[in-house]
């Protein structure tokens, strides 16, 4: 044996790689570029540029038939990019850093994509990138875009699998579109019936819900007016029946009890599993709230809520708290009574709602003491405070001057310009100093009616703070000192009340040349609301509600699973049935023949797909001589009708008669 | 439906069958090929009856028959003929070659050089020959039955694909079965029997039969099936280069002739399937060159993969 032969035996050839054709590479690049496009806002700019540069480079290599960069270059490149992500985010874990790393490594993978297998790996990375977009946004536009990306990605996948089939440029897209359309019924069944569990299916990274603006659990001067610059939607409300007048639209959020001289904070209250009792006076209002993710546990409800959504409790200060933070679009239904009378204060509560810091704001304390000497009745004291706001030169503004260490004194006697939190804070301070139990309630006030969808939009800019005082006969009574300064804030919203409406975000302004644009925005909002209500807010509660509403009574997840499996199998059967039927054409000649063949097939004499009619009946005649005469006649008649020049109705009827008579 | 023409064709099949024993299918294929105005290539080992088949067919169809034995030193002029100077008349007189006959048996065609092969193949394609600037028509009808030895035999020049394509069919005879072979061994000399064989048809009758072939009805479902076969050969990736439109036309013509030979006025899928191996066997090549697949295997793949349209 020659030495070189021996050598070649020692080192076997590597298995051949099926190369990826340029067309498949181009499709892959297009879909990846599409999948990453929505991320460009979140990714660091250098990474975005790098990603698209590598896409372009790979496209150049594919179309010009250049060779890929050498393998020794890839590892340093990957390490470098990984280090870049590490430096940018100080971590490789979590939502933002994780997605950046995924994007970066996908781009690097492009440079070693040679064969079919690499192409498929990239397709699956692409699906992962598509999913990662949903961690940032689940709005209609995003979902529509991702849907399109999935179709194109499926097309790329098809092309990779069948790259030698010589498909035309559009054929993969058509095929992918067809597959997606066929998958829609399955998707709907899974969407409606897949048992939903509260909370995410798996632990999302800690930073997954970062950066949500909204009410916080404490209030200091400026914290609410900051929100007035945001026209983001906080929640939308659909009323059963006519909506209450604007002056009753107080959406209750966190109730703040404790004051440290500058900052109001809530105090921990344990939610009860049943609504806190009070005496309603007047009719109830029923409504559904579709809340945007807030990353907070509290749910907003009109003063005062008398029912509890599922998995929600109520604190003694009538605040709804869910068992988990609202990190998804969440829909819940509440019943409230706008007129009410609440119960007694406990001693502990009484001491808490009268408590003030030991020192500071001495002028306000003096003023309260003067009022109290004049008339100690709580109603008189409230009136005194509201008269002060109404008759002195107080202004309602979005841009109040800064306050010093004694913020209440500073506001009451020096600046006299403020937003709702200034007025509420000063009012509650005065009340407590005068010996009237009082607390601050934060939340939202008012909202914009969207006539197109017949619901109320409450934006972050509608955030508000007001006061509640406790009166011996009536219990907790809402007093809104802002109404004394700027009555139209309550009646007509923020736009009507502020002195400088030009500084408000566009969607909060009214009138002017761009009113039609605002109408357009409202139509769009209406569409979004429907999306939220029917798709995003379709959680465990809504699912049970819907299925119970269909007349199934209370449904548990086991029954739901059964229903899902039944529906999926039913759909599969329908699909199979359609395919099966499509074999049987409408042509009576073909149908008769198919019936004849089906009968023989049941007897173990199946016609193979390529077997001609005469050849088949000859085979039948050999294997079942007793059937020979009839089978041969049917075969002759059928072949003459099907392939012969003339078809007479009489012959067709004869074939039908013969096949009906035929019993295998 | 039966008419004297069909009876006469049946008679031809029977007569040829009495000389070439146990090969009815091959005989019918050969006859269909001639009825479809196609040339026939018979590939088999020496001594299997190729020459006898050609000779018998010529005799039964009443055709003027010439045999050309191809050898490596055969020249084009040996086939086509040449102009020879005659001293008495002081002029060149054209002496037609053996090609000026109605049925040519080109024996062992792959023993000749490509140049000589192409002279014959040109004549087959155009029905005329051009010798020394003068175009001369070939007789009507004009058939070529070529035989060739399997390519692995020594001293052969295999026909290129483009020239194989000019033959409507390629058939093999194969060994006779035991019963036929016994009859062959017991019976009289084939040559003598052949000499006694009467001519069953006139060229005019043959012409009529060829006309009838073109009239055989082809229904749309059959064309669907034919197109499905052609498409599969092109798109499945199992074959290198699918079947050409010419192959499709050839299939249809051959299937019509086959149907007529079986006393049918329309073509059935079975007719198409019957002529399929002979018509496309020499036109298909495996998609993967490493696979050693016989023509029969390839045709079988094609046949089994394409269902009849519903």
Q: How many H/I helical runs of chain A?
A: 24
Number-wise, the strands of chain B total 9
Strand order of the largest sheet of chain B: 2-5-8-1-9
Going by CATH, the architecture of the largest domain in chain B would be 3-Layer(aba) Sandwich
What class would the helix/strand composition of chain A place it in?
alpha+beta
Order of helices and strands of chain B: HHEHEHEEEHEEEHEHHHHHHH
Calculate Rg of chain A over CA atoms: 36 Å
Helix content of chain A: 40-55%
The unreliable regions of chain B are none
What portion of the residues of chain B fall into strands of 2 or more residues?
A: 5-15%
CATH superfamily of the largest domain in chain B: P-loop containing nucleotide triphosphate hydrolases
Taking the sheet with the most strands of chain A, its summary is: 5 strands, antiparallel
> Roughly how many Å is the radius of gyration of chain B?
20 Å
Using CB atoms under 8 Å apart, which protein chain pair has the greatest interface? A-B, 22 and 21 residues
Low-confidence stretches of chain A: 1-10
Distance between the termini of chain A: 67 Å
| Major sheet details of chain B | 5 strands, parallel
Overall morphology of chain B: globular
Mean pLDDT of chain B equals: 85
Distance between the termini of chain B: 28 Å
Strand order across the largest sheet of chain A: 12-7-2-18-17
Write the layout of secondary structure elements.
The complex is a heterodimer of chains A (664) and B (310).
Chain A: H1 3-10, H2 22-36, H3 45-63, H4 71-89, H5 95-110, H6 116-133, H7 140-161, H8 171-193, E1 218-219, H9 223-227, E2 233-240, E3 250-256, E4 258-259, E5 264-265, E6 279-280, E7 285-291, E8 298-299, E9 301-302, E10 312-314, E11 320-322, E12 330-336, E13 340-341, H10 347-352, H11 362-374, H12 378-391, E14 395-396, H13 407-415, E15 417-418, H14 420-433, E16 438-445, E17 448-450, E18 455-459, E19 463-471, E20 475-479, H15 481-485, H16 487-492, H17 494-497, H18 515-536, H19 540-552, H20 557-583, H21 588-602, H22 613-623, H23 628-643, H24 649-661
Parallel strand pairs in A: 14-15
Antiparallel strand pairs in A: 1-5, 2-7, 2-18, 3-9, 3-16, 4-5, 6-13, 7-12, 8-11, 10-11, 16-19, 17-18, 19-20
Helix pairs in contact in A: 2-3, 2-6, 2-7, 3-5, 4-5, 5-6, 6-7, 7-8, 8-20, 11-14, 12-14, 13-14, 21-24, 22-23, 23-24
Chain B: H1 4-19, H2 24-35, E1 39-43, H3 50-60, E2 65-69, H4 76-80, E3 81-86, E4 91-96, E5 103-107, H5 114-126, E6 128-131, E7 134-137, E8 143-148, H6 161-164, E9 167-171, H7 178-186, H8 190-196, H9 203-215, H10 220-235, H11 245-261, H12 269-280, H13 295-305
Parallel strand pairs in B: 1-8, 1-9, 2-5, 5-8
Antiparallel strand pairs in B: 3-4, 6-7
